[in-house]
From TrEMBL:
It comes from the Eukaryota. It comes from Protea cynaroides. Belongs to the taffazin family. Transmembrane segments: none annotated. GO terms for cellular component: membrane. This is Tafazzin family protein. Residues 13-137 form the Phospholipid/glycerol acyltransferase domain. It is found in: Membrane. Pfam families: Acyltransferase (PF01553). One of its GO terms (biological process) is phospholipid metabolic process. Its main location: membrane. InterPro entries: Plipid/glycerol_acylTrfase (IPR002123), Tafazzin (IPR000872). Keywords: Acyltransferase, Lipid metabolism, Membrane, Transferase. GO terms for molecular function: O-acyltransferase activity.
Length: 236
């Protein structure tokens, strides 16, 4: 995990992973290779405000843990996405769950939300994007283990396995040019986004671009998930 500790000055890092339980973050960062005692190196993470920020005590706790509140369903231009962009502008490490919600089934990676893709495209410096796939958290904190509810405490003696993939590269200048070309032939209904981006992309171009970036991340994550399934099976 050298990219967490050492990367070019000013270059942000975005890690993306599947989302198996409410314990994924921060427990997954306790595995070997991640810094656990240096607050400056710790990740920022997008967290659902209806779960982590329900009252002032939870808000204080999760804010102290470098969590950024996100309102699910409020779109990619909501207020706190600007805060996430500020952290990327600082060259920080940001973690996202691009599927947008917990999924405990052993199933392919679902279609990704556009939030992560928009952060990659809108960041002043193109982030390094690092995919992570994990397995086992769904057994530690199953969603419907006790009468259709989560257990009051995490379950013990469960295997948690994590695989980190190779960085995903995006040629954003080339993608933006293609997005502008593709937008001329598109007929997306308007969603009321800001009229123009910093790169003069109209809404149709941005929608094509965010879809393309999201699909590339999804493809890499699904490939890594398939690889991890094989590795975990061989390990028993």
């Amino acid at each position: 995990m050298r990219l967490v500790r050492s990367r070019p000055s000013g270059v942000p890092l975005i890690t993306v992973s599947n989302h198996m339980s409410t314990l994924d973050d921060p427990v997954m960062w306790g595995f070997k290779g991640f810094p656990t005692s240096d607050a400056k190196l710790a990740r920022w993470v997008l967290a659902a405000d209806d779960i982590c920020f329900k009252n002032s005590i939870l808000t204080y706790f999760f804010r102290l843990g470098k969590c950024i509140p996100i309102t699910r369903g409020a779109g990619i231009y909501q207020e706190h996405m600007n805060e996430a962009l500020d952290r990327l502008r600082d060259g920080a490490w940001l973690h996202t769950f691009p599927e947008g919600k917990v999924c405990q089934e052993d199933a392919p990676i679902r279609r990704l939300k556009w939030g992560t893709a928009s952060l990659i495209e809108r960041a002043p410096v193109t982030p390094i994007v690092l995919p992570i796939i994990h397995n086992g958290f769904e057994k530690v904190m199953p969603e419907k283990a006790f009468y259709g509810r989560r257990p009051p405490f995490p379950l013990c003696n469960k295997d948690i396995r994590i695989i980190v993939g190779e960085p995903i590269e995006f040629d954003l200048p080339k993608l933006r040019v293609r997005a502008m070309s593709m937008s001329r032939d598109s007929s997306f209904p308007s969603m009321g986004w800001p009229s123009a981006s910093s790169h003069r992309l109209d809404e149709a171009a941005r929608r094509w671009l965010y879809t393309t970036i999201s699909e590339q991340i999804q493809t890499v994550m699904e490939s890594l998930r398939g690889f991890s399934t094989t590795v975990f099976r061989l390990q028993g």
